[in-house]
Predict the 3D structure of the following.
Amino acid sequence: MAGGDTLGSYNVNSNPSSDPSSPFYIHPTDYPPQVHVNGFLTDSNYADLSREMRDFLLSKNKSDFIDGTIRQPFVEAVELSAWQHCDALINSWLTTTMEKEIRSSVKCANTSKEVWDDLEERFRKESAPHAYDLKRALTIMRQYNVVVSTYFTKLRAIWDGIHSISPIPRCTCGKCTCDMGKRLVESRDAYTSSLWDSTTYMEQSRHKS
C-alpha cells in the first residue's frame, strides 16, 4: 500500500540514500547474509528471534520500515527508489533467518512490513499454548532444596518467557504521562517478589516440621 506521510520528521533531499543519518542510507557493507542473530526462525523461538531481529534493524536504522513509521511512498515521490532498495534489503535480512518452510509461507508478502506483520500474527496465536504452560509452571514451582538465588533465577526466567509471548501493553500515542506501562511492570515484579517470599517461607516451615 502506497502513499501518506512517508517520512515524518526525516529530511528528504534529491538523494535521501546519500545521507548516513537517513534510514534510507545503505552502507557498502550491508548485504543479506550480514544479519547477526542466534540461529534460524523456527516454530518455537519466535519471541527470542524477533527481539534479536528488531535490535539488529534498530542498529542499522531500519526498524521504522517494519513498525509502519516509514510507509511506501507515492509512485512520484523522490524517495521511492531509495525506499524500494531498503525494503528489499530488509526483506532479504528477514527471510535469510527463516527455516525453509516458514520462508515459503511469506513469499507472497509485498513489503518487509507485511512479512513482519504476518509472522507476528502467526506466531502470537501459536504461542498461546506455550504461554499457558509457562503460567502453569509458575503456579506449581517450588523451591524445595534449591538455593534461593537459583530458585529466583528460574522464577524470573519463567516470567521473562511469559512477558516475551504476552508483553505488557505500552502507550504508543505519546500523550500519556502516568507511566502505566512502567507501573504494570513494577506490579508484576512486586508479585514475583511476594510469590518468592511466600514460597520460601512455606518451604522453610515444611523443613522445620
In short: The mean pLDDT is 78. DSSP finds seven helices and no strands in the chain. Residues 16-126 form one domain. The helical segments are 46-59, 80-96, 100-105, 112-126, 128-140, 148-165, 180-208.
